[in-house]
């Protein structure tokens, strides 16, 4: 299967604090890959390496033939990578409509942008109902939907999601995960960082488990769900 993203032996640090050690992982084209691990395992750092916010000290980060390891964030996004950061970070004083427009700021294809606006509003009907509302006044779940919709407005080929379920009610989380699955079914590749291993292993094709910046286990999500060690440490027994 062709690879959308490939990390080869990536190490990275914040000054003296080592965040990733010799990490190798792949996201095949059209798949959902999840990255699991406890707090501080290096999940967010992995995403930062892909978006150019954290420079690896060793290794390669390949996306569609480009080595991202030496590229700046502003040159990485136009290649087709969009990130939904942890904690949502929508523009609170802009409306839903304005936030969505910001997601498409780098695009020149006006007709495509209009089409994608229809698309994301169909994916998230609640955003359509709140189109003129200031984003800061949305519920947490709605803000997460907006953050995802905004990222989709860039029409990425690879969508990076950092803890989309964080702090949200189970019902909203289910809705958001159903949408992630739908977007993937339409062909988008997804790299999903999640604390909720149960949920992540239900939606993902493949999973990687990190501990203190190192890969400790990986495999098809369906197999990892049955793995005794994964059940004990990540699925609550
Ligand atoms: P969480 O689920 O808590 O977000 P994580 O798996 O995403 O955890 P990272 O945020 O990638 O983990 O952190 C990996 C390591 O790097 C941790 O030891 C963390 O303390 C450290 N770290 C992360 N960001 C910084 C930073 N800006 N400066 C210094 N150290 C950092």
UniProtKB/TrEMBL annotation:
<dbReference type="InterPro" id="IPR052156">
    <property type="entry name" value="BCAA_Transport_ATP-bd_LivF"/>
</dbReference>
<feature type="domain" description="ABC transporter">
    <location>
        <begin position="5"/>
        <end position="237"/>
    </location>
</feature>
<dbReference type="GO" id="GO:0016887">
    <property type="term" value="F:ATP hydrolysis activity"/>
</dbReference>
<dbReference type="InterPro" id="IPR027417">
    <property type="entry name" value="P-loop_NTPase"/>
</dbReference>
<keyword id="KW-0547">Nucleotide-binding</keyword>
<keyword id="KW-0813">Transport</keyword>
<dbReference type="GO" id="GO:0005524">
    <property type="term" value="F:ATP binding"/>
</dbReference>
<dbReference type="InterPro" id="IPR003439">
    <property type="entry name" value="ABC_transporter-like_ATP-bd"/>
</dbReference>
<comment type="similarity">
    <text>Belongs to the ABC transporter superfamily.</text>
</comment>
<dbReference type="InterPro" id="IPR030660">
    <property type="entry name" value="ABC_branched_ATPase_LivF/BraG"/>
</dbReference>
<dbReference type="GO" id="GO:0015807">
    <property type="term" value="P:L-amino acid transport"/>
</dbReference>
<keyword id="KW-0067">ATP-binding</keyword>
<dbReference type="InterPro" id="IPR003593">
    <property type="entry name" value="AAA+_ATPase"/>
</dbReference>
<protein>
    <submittedName>
        <fullName>Branched chain amino acid ABC transporter ATP-binding protein</fullName>
    </submittedName>
</protein>
<dbReference type="Pfam" id="PF00005">
    <property type="entry name" value="ABC_tran"/>
</dbReference>
<keyword id="KW-0029">Amino-acid transport</keyword>
<dbReference type="InterPro" id="IPR017871">
    <property type="entry name" value="ABC_transporter-like_CS"/>
</dbReference>
<dbReference type="GO" id="GO:0015658">
    <property type="term" value="F:branched-chain amino acid transmembrane transporter activity"/>
</dbReference>
């Amino acid at each position: 299967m062709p690879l959308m993203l490939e990390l080869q032996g990536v190490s990275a640090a914040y000054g003296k604090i080592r965040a990733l050690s010799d990490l190798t992982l792949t996201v095949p084209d059209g798949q959902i890959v999840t990255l699991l691990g406890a707090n501080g395992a290096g999940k967010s750092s992995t995403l930062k390496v892909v978006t150019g916010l954290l420079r690896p000290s060793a290794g390669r980060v390949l996306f569609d033939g480009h080595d991202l390891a030496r590229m700046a964030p502003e040159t990485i996004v136009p290649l087709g990578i969009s990130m939904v950061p942890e904690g949502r970070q929508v523009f609170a004083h802009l409306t839903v409509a304005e936030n969505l427009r910001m997601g498409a700021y780098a695009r020149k294809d006006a007709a495509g942008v209009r089409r994608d606006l229809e698309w994301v509003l169909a994916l998230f009907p609640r955003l359509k109902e709140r189109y003129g509302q200031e984003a800061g006044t949305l519920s947490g779940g709605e803000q997460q939907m907006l953050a995802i919709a905004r990222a989709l407005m860039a029409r990425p080929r690879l969508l990076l999601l950092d803890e989309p379920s964080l702090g949200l009610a189970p019902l909203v989380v289910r809705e958001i995960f159903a949408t992630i699955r739908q977007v993937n079914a339409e062909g988008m590749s997804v790299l999903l960082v999640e604390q909720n291993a149960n949920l992540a292993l239900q939606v993902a094709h493949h999973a990687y488990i990190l501990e203190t910046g190192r890969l400790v286990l990986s495999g098809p999500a369906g197999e990892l769900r049955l793995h005794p060690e994964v059940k004990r440490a990540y699925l609550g027994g």
